[in-house]
Records
---
Amino acid sequence: MFVLAPRVHLLDLAGPAQVFGTATDQGHRYDLAYVADTPQVSSAQGLNLQATLDWPPLTRDDLVVVPGWRAPTLARSGRFGRPTLSRIAAHHAAGGMVASVCAGADALGRAGLLDGRRCTTHHDVQDELARRYPRAQVVRDVLYVEDGRVVTSAGIASGIDLALHLVAVRHGPATAARVARQMVVYARRNGEAQQASAMLRHRGHLSDAVHRVQDRIDAQFTETLTLADLAATAGVSERTVTRLFTAAIGQTPLRYQQLLRVERAEHLISQGATVEAAARAVGFSDARMLRRLRGRVTVVPDLRQ
């Protein structure tokens, strides 16, 4: 559900809404709703929007998003009534997640949700946000920050990154990558993270054939996939699929599959699995190959980003 303030930025709203709408088209249902303190909301770009005054019933599985608005200063803009701020706070208190784009972080601050948490906002108002909420830790120069079911993003287009992250958390990075591909955007994760999921890190290209092959590998990386299988998926020859794949992401299909296996194995090991159990879970016949690849495959850079 989106909570709209006067002079809302259209891209702050439309970017995340498009992500969730595209995820719905791919079988993950999101019922989008738009509420405000007035039935008509002016946008910063001059287009008037219709909203409802009545909040739908929410569960802890629902997400409340506050898009940003045109705000030379936070102190005199984006005014929400106390009932709206109380509903935002109550949703979080009930176990739900709240998110903001750009200046929308100020609404979360007014609702008391930034105290003791890491957060971010657009660079033009970062200093003011830090002054207004001294108990918050404002993180600069990142795309978004998640802390205790409160997710804040830097602004404008970073709302798309925030929404893709939330889709990845709920439905897996392969789904987020497919949504990003459908939207023809670069699928990124947290801007402060040194390592992003390989399923997202290697999607910054526009080769439809390679995306189809990646979709298959992402879905079946624990299985044995022959080059002939992948070539058939792309509708090209084995030599061509290798050439296209290497040109697009800088490594062969086999290398990419190994990267996904090792990345997943590292996660399982971090959760307490033995190397042997992790190796079997990701498709290796024994732990010897995993041991050889650990520390080598995981540091493969994506030179095209």
---
Amino acid sequence: MLSVLKNLWFRDPKESPVYINDIAIRIRAGILLFVPIYMSFTLYDAVFVSHWVVDGNTAVDSGDMDWDYNIIYSVEAIKKSYDYTVQTWVLFYALFEMLAGMFVWSARLSPAILLATLLAKNTKPVWKPIVPKRFAWGIGATFISICLVFFNPDVFANWVNTLAGSTLLPTTVNYMSPWIPLTLVWICLGFMWMETVLGFCVGCKVYSLLVKLGVFKEECEACNNIDWDEIARKNQERLAAQK
């Protein structure tokens, strides 16, 4: 337990480059999987479900029929108003988690990292470099930021207009198509599912490709599973045999 609290999911917080336990990463991705699932239901309701609410008690038969012999009713209907306060806070927490995992000092503030490390402490660790993971989490943070703009268009528009000193974005309508966050949420859900279930990090593969293309100069180490404890044990056995 003390080791978990001291090192979290890092092999050694002071080493360079930094390595983290991929088992804990996958567990954390599973914990955070609830965020895109919750947001997908929210966006489904916002995009595909009718915004009109009809009270069946107010539907009155008008006595007329249309050309297809359907009965015409007169109704009293209201339009739903959406409050995305809860969704906004959930997205802010998810954004915090994406950013917190990028650095040793901020990782200590993450409840999901602590919980994932505790759940993985009895499993043999799989050490992987943190740099490709940072890139993957950066993609996730970008997706989340775009969704935050969709749910709070007036706030973002006011910020932009204030900085620009002019009205660049409207503050009374949502200028972002709902298909943008809906698509991003499903992509995020797929990425996190592959990380959790298959151990396949799409962001890491993209990072590796960009390194090969020369976009990033830092060498992208292949995710490895070097058993340092086993190497140390064999070295001790060899030294003992020599004596």
---
Amino acid sequence: MATPSQTPGPAPLDLTTVRTAPKAVLHDHLDGGLRPATVLELAQHCGYDALPATDADALAAWFAAAAGSGSLERYLETFAHTVAVMQTPEGLQRVARECVADLAADGVVYAEVRFAPEQHLDGGLSLDDVVHHTLLGFEDGMAQVRDLGREIRVGCLLTAMRHAARSREIAELAIRFRDRGVVGFDIAGAEAGHPPSRHLDAFELMRTNNAHFTIHAGEAFGLPSIHEAIAFCGADRLGHGVRITDDIVVDDDGTTRLGRLANYVRDKRIPLELCPSSNVQTGAVPSLDKHPFDLLARLRFRVTVNTDNRLMSATTMSDEMVALAVTFGYGWSDLERFTINAMKSAFLPFPERLRLIDEVVKPGYALLKG
């Protein structure tokens, strides 16, 4: 039997060790995670000459600065450049393949990566072509990771833009490709003036086909967006959802009182796809230390940690976890809980979720906890 001095302790919780921890991300945009060098190379190949910088470091800095304006609308404008270079089969496959490689290198073992096929038609591809080539890229990336002796499972979410009128069409696309790598459906874009209830036919199609969907809600707009996403549309998860705190009162003595909507979200275990760095950049929260993540975690909402857009926020899953740990004093058990929350909420069959939790996530964190 080991003496106390011989008993190994927990690994230091820093960026190097967190990168080795198994992680799951549910909210990661494909067009928000390109490598700056890839943007430059694809722009050259397709003749796109509107990039704001001509070298990778300067381009990365521009994306971070433009995305950090504090405005969701300005944040969304940065995607014009990444989407512009994702209009060919080669571009889509390369971006998807590199996405898988980058996530795996950061210790991600499960990822749901989303994108809006309707935004990739300028080069003459059909919606089916766009999804087909993107899924090929994901498959290539997963195969390359397996060849390196590591594991990652990537599922694709097809997103419809809430200001457009193609949500039913994109939902049909998600159903068509559901057994080929697409695991769900989403709507995204500016919330104000574009309520989720305008897309009820798309959500009804998903429910009719027993298919999963999440909805961007409660990021730049408040409780009405969350209420509609849940009560009218039947969302399985909430993309961001930080504004659920509008229905939570914290008294001076620290006592909390939840309104009916907040109670419902917690009681039903509706997952919140929280994206800390992005939420600060878009002005959804004023600063990381003011982020409601910790409040929601302590109140036992099903919180998950996500990247949103790795390029725009200059972030990774490891960066997000370390930032939360430093800001709120989290330890390995907390990071494990957030990861298990994500795996429980994944759009995967239950046996596959359970296998990743029991065979990958828990053993990985057990090593780190010592």
---
Amino acid sequence: MATIDWQGVMPAVTTKFTKDDKLDLKMFEVNINAQLDAGVSAIILGGTLGEASTLSQEEKKELTEFTVSVVNNRVPVILNIAEQSTKDAILAAKNAGDYGASGLMMLPPMRYNATDNETVAYFERVAKSTDLPIMIYNNPVDYKIEVTLDMFEHLLKLDNIQAVKESTRDISNITRIRNRFGNDLKVLCGVDTLALESILMGADGWVAGLVCAFPAETVAICNLAKAGRIQEAIEIYRWFLPLLELDINPQLVQNIKLAEVATQIGTEHVREPRLPLIGEERKRVLKIIEEGMATRPQLPDYKTLSI
């Protein structure tokens, strides 16, 4: 079984498109290299930010294989699974391995509001079908299914279910997980606006969104907090928060892609039915990005910290 050290900053990267709606692998490589240069711990493909629901199977294959090639074993490449049926999820897990991915991030069944028993069975059957390490994405706010601690009690009997992307919006849940499972379940914050608080309460890492545009600042906050340099982390986080709030918005993809344009590691192109922001909302988002760029902090040497 492959192994993943579930810690640090793991960007859920955007998928880059050309103006004629093809994969823009050239700009995608620019962004991936910026993430690696900043010191991220993994690359996560095919999440909401990656516009996965609009990608064809061939595009997912091309994107994954290309990322694996660019990353070249420097960090794990993790593919998200968000399927409607157990059969399709098992196939997606097999494909991920065939494409060279090192691990999986898994949502509960999509569209159908599965019971606790059905959700556990879904995760178990997919996990038993693959050797890839798995991080469960627990986001009951957006996806209406909560993976409870009792459910994790069953799931952790499987060696390759190892981590949770914690997006319940309840900071106390990190302490509950630690009290119940110790370090047997790795915890990564999945909500940008709760990331520093989560790390201070014991989260192992951060599955991040605005990292797509600001990789160095994101990793700096995580590393400083883990190294005990809390005040320095807080100061950067306070600067970052207006930008991070662009992630907790229905148009998070458009918002973050606009920010990537500002930092010159992305383009604004989205895939329909998404459209670029217009009108007053576009002005509002651009103002936040422009203010963030104008006051971008000087970062300490965060890469050499003992954490």
